[in-house]
Amino acid sequence: MEFNFESNLTSLRSSAPLVHNITNFVVMNFTANALLAIGASPVMAHAVQEVEDMVSIAGALVVNIGTLSPVWVDGMKLAMKKAAELGKPIVIDPVGAGATPYRDQVLQQLLEVASPAIIRGNASEIMSMAGSHIRTKGVDSTALSTDGLSAARALSHQYDCVVSVSGATDVIVRGNETAYVKNGIPLMTRITGMGCSASAIAGAFAAIQPDFFDAAVCAAATMGVSGELAGQRADLPGSFQIAFLDALEALKPAQLAELSRLTI
Amino acid sequence: MEFNFESNLTSLRSSAPLVHNITNFVVMNFTANALLAIGASPVMAHAVQEVEDMVSIAGALVVNIGTLSPVWVDGMKLAMKKAAELGKPIVIDPVGAGATPYRDQVLQQLLEVASPAIIRGNASEIMSMAGSHIRTKGVDSTALSTDGLSAARALSHQYDCVVSVSGATDVIVRGNETAYVKNGIPLMTRITGMGCSASAIAGAFAAIQPDFFDAAVCAAATMGVSGELAGQRADLPGSFQIAFLDALEALKPAQLAELSRLTI
Amino acid sequence: MEFNFESNLTSLRSSAPLVHNITNFVVMNFTANALLAIGASPVMAHAVQEVEDMVSIAGALVVNIGTLSPVWVDGMKLAMKKAAELGKPIVIDPVGAGATPYRDQVLQQLLEVASPAIIRGNASEIMSMAGSHIRTKGVDSTALSTDGLSAARALSHQYDCVVSVSGATDVIVRGNETAYVKNGIPLMTRITGMGCSASAIAGAFAAIQPDFFDAAVCAAATMGVSGELAGQRADLPGSFQIAFLDALEALKPAQLAELSRLTI
């Protein structure tokens, strides 16, 4: 397996893919700015009246259930169906999976509509989706990403997709293949929307790299390396949030390749 | 009456309570980041399909009517009913009370569902809720917090709750008891979401301190002291917003106790 | 034609008009902070139950279709109808016009409800509204603002309103009159919500300046000059976003007049 950090980021920057997000209210602004900073073009649209048209002009669809409600779920399903028909990659972010039965039911329904390219969540969420009886504390993980390995593998087999488990070490799985990305700093867990941005950026890479394992690994490394670089500028969460967007924008493809710590 | 600034903040940090917010679109990101920075764990969920489950795993519920609509009000009512059944503290933020009849009707309905632990608003909002015929200018106060004292006292008696009136001096009332917190700087009124964050942080303290008068005073002092510390770093609103989140994170319990200016 | 940069900004600051926004989820926080920073008082409210009451106490209404859905469109229509009855200026921001048929249909419906004072968009959006068969890439323009001149003129005649086309040079049109504002820097396109804030600030100026051509030109210059000043402090998008809010707050009326580069 080969991972193309440098060429993927170069390609993302030159093609500036449109990423269609149906995401939660809390992170919309940060997600849009993160996508712009990495070089993609974000759009948010959720109404059933337009999601099919929007996803048709997009390079990828990112579905995030952070603040879900039935009318939004309708839009998610319709967008996913259309994306699948058109062969556009879908990223699912199962925010808060395991926190309430409703979230779990919705996830189940979404995964019946279409198979995602990538599922990206924290360990609690991934373990919950795989049927572990773990209790997610709201939207925060109560488990280590490495604890989520077998759950990730099970999900990957079940839905024939890449599963990316964020944590101190990001664990990315496709079938029996596993990649570990050991980038990032603890401060990344102290601001909201980091995971959601990781999913959105995975969508941006999936829009330009048809090998979604490669795309998911690049996204994890991009987040982690940018977090480390931002951490050199800021050690408190408000200023870190800003430094992180700056780091995404300033990140050079060669630097991403050089600073990523990947083991397979 | 005793106020436990140092031990309350220490306790908040060590228990990291889950605070369930049903709040407005404008401030969700800032509120979530403020809760993380002070040491709590935020979650936003509003759908009737899941609010009861979410509030069941939370330490407190914060209801904010800033961008309300009927379907959100349904979620607020259901969450409040469940919180009351489970004995979880509820904080109400009456954003824009008095600005439109709809807001006033909704507030009335919410308060019939369950008695809050704390109502936190600006003077216009509190005076409007208490029946003064004051006109709120959108969501900004047109009155001094100290003008709101008698209104706060009336509300406190009516709903058997703590009422916290934010302003140059924060006035916190429980029945006939009154506490004044003279912290904070004018720049705090120049960014959106400060009041909403004050309510969310009151929820975080109420989750760990069953004496809600103590909790409300600690929240007011936390906001004010952090605002003052942030004001030493930034004198314009964009950078102040960031410095404020940094200050919340960096605030030490002993520092809170030392810098708070409380009179009773 | 005369443009009153200095007196308009002075008047905006002294009267602090309430600007009622029905806008998209992505930009609400930034828009509210931008309005506060320039000296206006923002309020967000979208429910049909209260938009008429809210717009009745506001100085201007700003309608932005960035994340539209039917229930929000109902609120937009009702608010616009009431604003028109009361003679309050309406600003329309046609975010993503041309990206989906739904957006185009909604825009058509909104413009049948009431004639706006100002339509402010990027060139793709304005050209799409005028019937050019241009494809908007999500919410980003694929055309130069100067390419939008004839489309802007057509729209201005059709709806008897001012049309402001944002870009490297902002082109503002009223009938056969044209003004060009050559302020701003490319970094302004690298964060989300800049266009939306431009529309909101146009609403703030329209609330205090009944000559909407003057108001739209002042808004464009305010954005561009503040962007240039912020660019002296920050060269990456995260920190630029913050520096921009700081610059709006710090902008002096005389400075606006001095630094604006207007040609007519």
From TrEMBL, chains A, B, C:
Higher taxonomy: Bacteria, Pseudomonadati, Bacteroidota, Cytophagia, Cytophagales
SUPFAM superfamilies with a match to the protein in the record: Ribokinase-like (SSF53613)
Binding positions for substrate per the UniProt entry: 44, 193
The name this protein goes by in its record: Hydroxyethylthiazole kinase
Function of the molecule: Catalyzes the phosphorylation of the hydroxyl group of 4-methyl-5-beta-hydroxyethylthiazole (THZ).
Keyword Transferase included in the entry's annotation: yes
Matches recorded under NCBIfam families: PRK09355.1 (NF006830), thiM (TIGR00694)
Binding residue positions for ATP: 120, 166
Reactions the enzyme catalyzes: 5-(2-hydroxyethyl)-4-methylthiazole + ATP = 4-methyl-5-(2-phosphooxyethyl)-thiazole + ADP + H(+)
E.C. numbers: 2.7.1.50
Pfam family, one: HK
Alphabetical keyword list: ATP-binding, Kinase, Magnesium, Metal-binding, Nucleotide-binding, Thiamine biosynthesis, Transferase
The keyword Mitochondrion is annotated on this UniProt entry: no
Functional pathway: Cofactor biosynthesis; thiamine diphosphate biosynthesis; 4-methyl-5-(2-phosphoethyl)-thiazole from 5-(2-hydroxyethyl)-4-methylthiazole: step 1/1
Gene Ontology molecular functions: ATP binding; hydroxyethylthiazole kinase activity; magnesium ion binding
Family in the record: Belongs to the Thz kinase family.
A Gene Ontology BP annotation from the UniProt entry: thiamine biosynthetic process
Organism: Dyadobacter helix
Database matches in CDD domains: THZ_kinase
Cofactor list: Mg(2+)
